[in-house]
Specification:
The chain is an alpha+beta fold and about 100 residues long. It has helices spanning about 10-30, 40-65; strands at about 1-5, 75-80, 85-90. It has one domain. A three-stranded antiparallel sheet has the order 1-3-2, with no helix packed on it.
Length: about 100
């Protein structure tokens, strides 16, 4: 179940969308890159870590700014079309 808990500005949405798209692109690259190319592999790992930190930092910053509701085992998601933030409630048994 999802519950509308807030909204972010267009600028804030653009920021997380950039991190989201970068993270997805790096994950796709990781699927085809082998450890044989050590230099590129190390750069990928570094970029993935930095992008993940930026992604999580955005959620932490926005949650603090807007005081979003949360629940144990739940997660937040953004609708990139309308900037709405949804709380995704866990199903019974802890599954999302």
């Amino acid at each position: 179940m999802k519950k509308l808990i807030g909204k972010v500005t267009e600028e804030e949405k653009n920021e997380i969308q950039t991190f989201f798209e970068r993270r997805n692109g790096l994950n796709e690259l990781a699927k085809i890159l082998t450890v044989d190319n050590t230099e590129l592999y190390e750069k990928l790992v570094k970029d993935m870590s930095e992008t993940e930190r930026n992604f999580q930092s955005w959620w932490d910053k926005m949650a603090d700014k807007y005081q979003w509701e949360s629940v144990d085992g739940g997660s937040w998601e953004i609708n990139f079309e309308n900037c709405n933030i949804m709380l995704v409630m866990p199903k019974k048994g802890g599954e999302l």
